[in-house]
Fold:
Amino acid sequence: MPRPDRKTITFSIDGREVEAPEGTMLVDAAKLGDVEIPVFCYEPKLGAPVGACRMCLVEIEGIPKLQAGCATPVKDGMVVHTQTDKVRAAQNSVVEFLLVNHPLDCPVCDKGGECPLQDITFGWGRGRSRVVEPKRHFEKPLALSPLIAIDRERCILCYRCVRFSQEVSEDYQLVLQERGSESFVATFDGHPYVAPFSGNIIELCPVGALTSQPYRFRARPWDIEQSGSVCNLCPGQCNVSYTVRDDRVLRVLARDHHEVDDGWLCDRGRFAYQAMHVDERITAPMVRDGGVLREVTWERALEEAAKALGRAKGAVGAIAGGSTTNEEGFLLQRLVRETLGSPHVDSRASGALPIGLHAALSAPATQATVPDVEFAHAVLVLDTELVDDMPILDLRVRKGVRRNRVKLAVATSRPSSLDANAKAVARFAPGAGEAFVAALEAAIAGSPIGELAAAAGAEEDAVTAVADLLREAGEDVVIVWGERLTHGPRAVQAAQALLKVSSRLNPNPHPGAGLLEVPAGANARGLREVGVLPGIGPGLTEAAPGLDTPGIAAAAANGELPALYFLHTDPLRDLPDRATWQRALDRASTVIAHGAFLTEGLREFATVVFPTEAPAAKEGTLTHTDGRLQRMRQAIGHPGDSRSEWQVLAELSKRLGDDLQLFTAPMVYAQVVDSVPFYAGISLDDIGGVGVRWPAREAASAWPAGESAPVGLEAPAAAASPNGKLRVGTFRSVWAAPEVEASPALKFLAPKQRAELAPSDAARLGIGHGEHVLVGGVPAVAHLRTGTPEGTVFLEEGIEAAPAAAITDPLAEVTKA
Amino acid sequence: MTWHPGDDVVEVLRGPKPGGPGGVYRAFGETLRGLKTTFARIPEGPTTIQYPEEKVPVYPRFRGRHRLHRFEDTGLEKCVGCSLCAAACPSDCIRVVAAENTPEHRVSAGERYAAVYEINLSRCIFCGYCEVACPFDAITLGHDFEMSDYHRSDLIFTKEMLLTEPLERTPLRAEGE
Structure:
């Protein structure tokens, strides 16, 4: 549904006239008149108020009884009093009631000092209690999950955590058990509450009932400093606030930004901070010496790297990983292109696209924003599993469906967690995204789709149902598409098909509708815009044609590229076609890598390793997938004499004879802005704490024109027919990341290789749930999942022990191990 | 136009000018008057206290070096590491890092205990706010005032140092002394 139009009304609170949008709850409207009404259970992010805690009672003229301010919308001419004796007596009593069973163990409670219950008791309580009866007791402290500790004695039963689980993350795990004074929060089945967004309930809890296990007893609010930044672990780029004590990050909190994250964080963003301070982390540069990586001085590492790169001038391949900032990406492409004269730079796993298509896919006119997902008429989630690829957007889609009746269509190869919320669901064979989009295009146009649907391995009815839903929903249609769609050799055709669907659904581009990409890397869009693509320079300008990632792998494997440079990526872990990469790394005489952990590729093949700064130590800008420039700010210092990565890149340039005269991170940013015309005029101050969407600024007119000529879609390649074997699809779990494996608290979530199979296939192959199998030689544990399309097996990417990238065929045999 | 000071003029009281009989009196008379006190004290003998051999007893409420306390019956530390002392401290000289008690390793009576408890006595102003803030009477200011040392770093007192009795006890002033 489009954003509602709210008119402004005037009401009176404590004798002052206040203007507020109609329908606002009294608690929020009162704030506009600088009146504070205390609340515990009210949290607008959780949806409709419940009025459970009764703390917000106010007197409204014309209503004999006190009303709950959090659940009463303001009306024109309403007269509200919050300072009368009646209200005060009610507030005193509510505090007294809430404290009847509260243990008041503030000195040992982790919430002490930042506890709304303390604040409200101090501000609105009577100061003494008349209750002398014994308090209720529970066993404590208990682990609600390995990440969350629950203390039920402190709970005031405000329902916030339960509502989060039921209505926001929709994992339906938390419930309130028993009734009345016996009530307590628990999981429905008594199992630990493990969910991708479980950590949010820690921040929601207004008392110390739910506390973070990793942060347990670490610090008090007066021991710490909060430092705002942006998370660079996934394309969601949530705004976070690092809690720093003694130059260590102890906690990550959400920094509410309605247009980016809506105030939530996923557990990876919330708990992976621990990986910044583990011993495994690389903190000093290393050079391979006699076959072993040894820590060396910065001087020596830089000298070795510069010498090796200098020897390989003109034949250097560089690949930037998703967490690279705009500044680092810019410096990398400059180092490789201009200083070393080699055009081979890429930041995508595969599937190079021409400038025109990149321009058309993220054109400012058809760029949907994150809040648009919430207010569109219909949303199509295409070839992406949001909870894994961009977790925070998953919550946004759910919010739109639940609160604004957005019609959701899901089209993926692997069963999606959003299926239950969708009005129409279509499945297609892994890798047949192009054929599916072509079929969808035909279905929207009303042409016969039989052949195309068959090529995509999709059911004709399902495609038609998705097409009908999108066509008939209304004018605001947002297509949330995964970058995976444009991977592979037929990327160009897939992108063209997608553009065609987009132009059919949104013939007149307007705000509130369009395309929203879910990139594979956290800063994929920024890297694209600063020119880390083959043949595309900063600002999407023409550059000398170069090899893309698979091309670099092939060339290096043939011995044509003696030097490889990896910025925040380990090809053996993150990139497809492992066999070629292994040969490439083996053949290359120089492999320079920036990494945080010694993952396989670095450990075995890197000749020079530079340490990656911890995200909290980083200074730089990122570009969100909807075009918002955001800023990572430094919260902690670099350990020892560590250098920033932009410094390393600038120093290498300097040693190779191209002194860029860069002394601070903002100077690098200034160079980025100079070479990217559509960033023109955006200063770091403009970006500030909330970021700037450049497509909404005037300089966006400098964005190159996209490919607009109507293209005739070619017949897309058909998905391989299973023919006894199974089609192999891959997915990357949100937990498949080195920082998850390195965080003591999150380690238990680090995935093991599993093969998702349809029960019917498993029965045919005689495989039971939990049995060990080999999928094309890759060991995995069989995981039967209803909903998995027949004839398909899904493997997880990014697992070092059993890499799915070892399988290059679209089909594989599944056998018992 | 000449400036007229008006009512702002303040008359300054000045002493008599030097010289003359008044001057002679001030030079000798006043000096003798002062010496009278000096000579009058001579029969009393010296009152210097030979510190450190001799020590002045302190009053019971004297605020000296801090002490952390244990429960007498269980031997557990009273401090639960709540950091309220650190919050109350105006000179920011207390550092507390808390940790969790386990059944095998129980240090304090509550869920948490102070794994690190440090007071930087070179910064402490002995105001006693920490004692006031403590919800468990775990920290008190003792009578010790002999804390000088050769290195500043030695003035950072750790939890172990604060938990032990001082080696030499400062004499306490008796009733009516």
Remarks:
- The CA atoms of residues 68 and 139 of chain B lie 5 Å apart.
- The first strand of chain B starts at residue 66 and ends at 68.
- The domain at 66-163 of chain B is CATH 3.30.70.3270 (Alpha-Beta Plaits).
- The mean pLDDT of chain B is 89.
